[in-house]
């Protein structure tokens, strides 16, 4: 069993807590308490590197991160790439980001955006969610509506939201 630590223990025995966390850290063995280097092939764990995605343009920003339209260079598909916000985090992935990943991973519903995978950058604080790209969400539909929705449009949208909510309450 091991835990992930940052900074180089040989040259810097008392790591600066303000220093950026890099993926070029070491693994601390919980059995022996000694540091072990991370093998090059395990640097990204089982996640693909974000360098396999070509960022095309920024599409929005929420409370927990910035969202880009991007191209998956392996499949050539257009996806949404959301960088998890790690502003003041010193203890790794924020709980909000972790919750979003755990919940989206369990969800399979036509009215809930699909989380395809999580990909990582070179530094430990760069974590991205790869999701299906949707041209519109309810917020942008509301922002761009030129005239009030008709009664049937309201019913249609409400029904989609209710379906997703009902699914979430049953699934989680
Ligand atoms: N899968 C997606 N496809 C296309 N655009 C997306 C996708 N996900 C998010 N966006 C765009 O990025 C914006 C920010 O999304 P995000 O999920 O981070 O926050 P939010 O849910 O809108 O807001 P908050 O997290 O603050 O409640 C959205 O308003 C939308 O315009």
UniProtKB/TrEMBL annotation:
Keywords: ATP-binding, Kinase, Nucleotide-binding, Serine/threonine-protein kinase, Transferase
GO molecular function: ATP binding; protein serine/threonine kinase activity
Polar residues bias spans: 1-10
Gene3D superfamilies named among the record's database cross-references: Phosphorylase Kinase, domain 1
Domain of life according to the entry: Eukaryota
The keyword ATP-binding belongs to this UniProt entry's keyword annotation: yes
Domain Protein kinase positions: 53-172
InterPro entries, A to Z: CDK, Kinase-like_dom_sf, Prot_kinase_dom, Protein_kinase_ATP_BS
Region feature Disordered, mapped onto this chain: 1-22
Binding site for ATP: 82
UniProt GO BP: regulation of mitotic cell cycle
A Pfam family of this chain: Pkinase
GO CC, alphabetical: nucleus
PANTHER family: CELL DIVISION PROTEIN KINASE, CYCLIN-DEPENDENT KINASE 10
Name of the molecule in the record: GD26008
Biological source species: Drosophila simulans
